[in-house]
Predict the 3D structure of the following.
Amino acid sequence: MLFGLLAALVVALAAGPAAASGCAGKPAGVERLVCSEPSLAALAADLDEAFAESRDRIARTVEQENWLRGRRAACPAIASPKPDPLPGSAQREVALACLERLYRQRIAVLRYPLNRAAWPHVPFLPRLVAGAGTRLCEDLEQDLVAGFLGRGAEVDPLGEREIGFAPQPGLGDDEAPVLRADIDVYNSGKPVPVLAWIGERNGTKTVEYRVFSSPGELLAAIGRGGEPLSDSVRAAAHPLVDPAASASEHALFLRAPVVPAAQQPRFFAADGQVYVLAPAAGETGDLGVYRLSGPRQPGRLCLFAAQAPTGSPGPTPRREAARGPQIDAAFAAPVFAALTRAAGPLTPTGRFCRPSVEAAARLGSAAAWRPWALDRRRRGEDPLAGKLQIYMRNRALTGPEMARDYRAYSAARAAAIAALAPFYRDKFGRSPAEAERLAALYADRLVALGFEVDPDDDASLVLFDPGYADEQKAEKAALAGDSANLRAMLGEHPKEQAELLRGELDEPLVSDALFHPDTLDMLLGLGLDPNERGPSGHTPLMIAARLDLVAAARLLLAHGAVPDLGAGDAVAQTDRAGDPACLTGTGGDAPGRTALSYAAEFASPEFVRLLLDHGASPQRRDSAGRRPADYLKRRRGDNSGTAKIAAMLK
């Protein structure tokens, strides 16, 4: 009989539902929803892999089947196999978020032995400091540590034990849904409606839980509610916990009715009782488990604490944890500030769009507290700052201005990585190479949080298209001043060949060579046009003015550059799907601007004098009606130079 049972389990392991994500063939039910979302389908594949790697697959088979069956109960927003929650609806978003938490936690549990072996020297794992000897607390500790070591952005120790919430019809909207679960939250044998209001404060997503004494009371509140209905229903509900009665407790939700969504309390059931798991206020790594007997009677059963990696250890884990995670900000902050400044010119709009407070806080917490969560093994889960390189290279924004900015960005990034790597080496015991890799992940994700991706750019789907290097050889040679190779590429018909070598969004080779007078002189001598506008709308002379390249300007003017040509329209590089605040471009660069107007804003008095001597008009207006002198107010620093230019332009 035992042999038969083992054989059945082996068969189930090979072909049963526990070992398969269900995305092959025609998935049904929950699997159809999972497989329709690329990020969840990737997690399902990870789950299959984690299960296959498990050392005790036979013992885990029944457990895995139970987990698969429990997904629907854990995520009530999945109303029924048919129809699936509508794309874009609040119900679907809630269901996907719930399933993502379940999958990440399950993967963390299955991979716990491997993850623990990979990080053997972590001294600050969450540990049980109150509630030892209680099966509930000890079971949660195991799951909490597994989630702590997992790669997910957040730790989720509850898994299928969590009591899910679903959207309440008629209240809220897709941007600010109101969620509901009927829970015996006070363990009185009487389930009551618990509602969660999702909102936003100062860029941070928030949640507020309130309760009604019965479904009838909720219906009555909806029936007599005013507009907006969500607010009137909230006013009629009762606080889940009376903060005034719980001032001495540690959980954040006991102290304030509205809390950041990243620190929201979570409800779960175990052994017929309902409990609340909630982060402690201001004590990173501390989680409390509470059993409520009423709004004024919270009782804590468990407390999990961890020692944060903040330098010299404190006398106790609790005191150290209260300090919160830090990344030696005194020396790291300046270089990261330089990194974000340098990244700005490389974004499609020329601006670095600040991330939300919540997103930045989560990234900082992961970087300092659980750096392995910075890893993303599947493309598409998070934007990468490597996409800045895509814009620099694959969008052909590698003209001389962008090349200069890219060098500044690369230098700032290298400085940031060098400043942060010792943190991971010393606090986490990582090798120098691994410490540098983690520092680079954090630096890149810091920039990526505010980087807008162009949805129309196919190149953003790949890092460095294999064929791109060959297509950009001429541009690269011009930017590097490699005259010999560039001359060989241009062949017997330089003007025609230059046009063939230039990509649709490339600046002219003459513009690319502005930093290298010898190469520039060679190209102009071959007959290339000194007045050709690039996708920026600028002629080579305008770009030379923006970069204050006097020697290049002399060569251009000697070969027929026209000083008073007006700038054309730039090729759009904005993201229609991004934050509207990030779509304002470079800030008022009007068509029709002349090289002299750019020189007044960016260049030296010597450059301005050169243009005036070659006939540039200080009275010529652009499409906004501005003359060159009007751009003097944009200059920064060097007041004496500004005064000299102002005198010249009178």
Q: What stands out?
A: The CA atoms of residues 309 and 427 lie 6 Å apart. The chain has a mean pLDDT of 79.
